[in-house]
Amino acid sequence: MSPLVVGARIRADIISGVLEPGTKLRETALAEQYAVSRIPVREALRSLEAEGLVESRPYVGSIVAPSPIEDAEDLFEIRIVLESATARRAAKRAAAHAGGGEPDPRWRTVRKEINEILEAGDAVIAEGRFEDLAVLNMRFHFAIAELSGSLSLISLLRQISGKIEWLYSLNVSRRGTQAWPEHRAILAAVDAGQETNAAALMGAHVARSRDAYFAMMAERAESGVDE
Amino acid sequence: MSPLVVGARIRADIISGVLEPGTKLRETALAEQYAVSRIPVREALRSLEAEGLVESRPYVGSIVAPSPIEDAEDLFEIRIVLESATARRAAKRAAAHAGGGEPDPRWRTVRKEINEILEAGDAVIAEGRFEDLAVLNMRFHFAIAELSGSLSLISLLRQISGKIEWLYSLNVSRRGTQAWPEHRAILAAVDAGQETNAAALMGAHVARSRDAYFAMMAERAESGVDE
DNA sequence: TGAGGTTAGATTGTATGCAATAGTCTCAGA
DNA sequence: TCTGAGACTATTGCATACAATCTAACCTCA
């Protein structure tokens, strides 16, 4: 396996629940598992530590961090503010482009990518392959963040959506198909350069996502899945 | 120099402006500068990348990320929500301790540390050593986050306050002395287990900090410091 | 029997050396 | 003069080897 992506693999194993919170992450074991040396493993662990997915102590080692499930409400609330900001700033840049006529090649690339994402999502829904929708959803939100042009906001989104993905680890979200059409409305506001409208639409979109999450959790609790 | 802290040094150089945005960070140069090998430098760069202070591309290298100054408003807004959450959860835990009577040694340690921080701040103000207040202020906010018991929120606070510290890089905040007494009110609400009150006080505290930042920036612009 | 110090093993931290890749510079050809 | 292909160099990515440190088991002694 390509050593450059070993971090992504470990992250996926944590988020998907293969590695449970509290599990000790021994460098040599991980190195052997992914058929690389300890160096890339250590670098991956440093990234995961900064992201809050792993807890490390010098000369002692790393363990998988506790699940953020207790913080679900707060995480969603922060995400609402954060993604409203990315949408607002994306709209602002769109308006600047429309007025000033700057080219900005990166912007055009990402903007095109969003069209592809939306169409891919439509196709996935039409064919009923709902399990592929989660990653497309994520890509849409990151693409909007990239349109905002702010690396700070992107890196915050990376951190927080990693944790929110973790929240969903054991559940397949069924909200996807309802939520998908909302993306086009958000994008339309961004394209139109309507800053406050884009921010409001995105905020409401994420808020509904939060509500769906808690409704699902309540349902799970009702049917006694865990306890 | 102890290699384990080389990351903190690089971070400090970025935040303080010694390393300007766009500067190429060559591993061998940094290794020589801090008298270590490239390995600890690389691990530090991975952490900084995850924090959004550095941008890396495989086989090309790392550069200092653009300053987050454009995102100041959004960052403060997110911080208001985030720190309201840490204060609320800290209060919740305090209430649980008062009722249930759990011991929790870590909580007691941090709680004592806060007292020391507050007294140290008073002393610093009395002696006029205002330049030491910034780090004490930071320690107070992180200590509250630790009382919340949530690693997710702590790691988000780490990331966002790194960026907000960066915003202040060229300015010495003069708000410190006015803001300091507010800390005691926040702590009192936490200790009393008043969740909503603690959250509201913390939110207002951070909002005032934001306002002071923008007032200072406006003043700087007036007097033509930069342009 | 139990408390405290001690040593062996396991694990992390770092240095060195080599492999892989990207960017650059040169030079032939049109 | 411009263009493109190819080698060259600087830099990053990684594997191996060794040093530093922690943890736990054991042993000593009161």
UniProtKB/TrEMBL annotation, chains A, B:
Family annotation (Pfam families): FCD, GntR
Residues covered by the HTH gntR-type domain: 1-67
PROSITE patterns documented for this protein: HTH_GNTR (PS50949)
Keyword line: DNA-binding, Transcription, Transcription regulation
InterPro entries associated with the record: GntR_C, TF_FadR/GntR_C, Tscrpt_reg_HTH_GntR, WH-like_DNA-bd_sf, WH_DNA-bd_sf
Source taxon at top rank: Bacteria
Listed PANTHER family: GLUCONATE OPERON TRANSCRIPTIONAL REPRESSOR, TRANSCRIPTIONAL REGULATOR, GNTR FAMILY
Record's protein name: GntR family transcriptional regulator
Species per Swiss-Prot/TrEMBL record: Brevibacterium ammoniilyticum
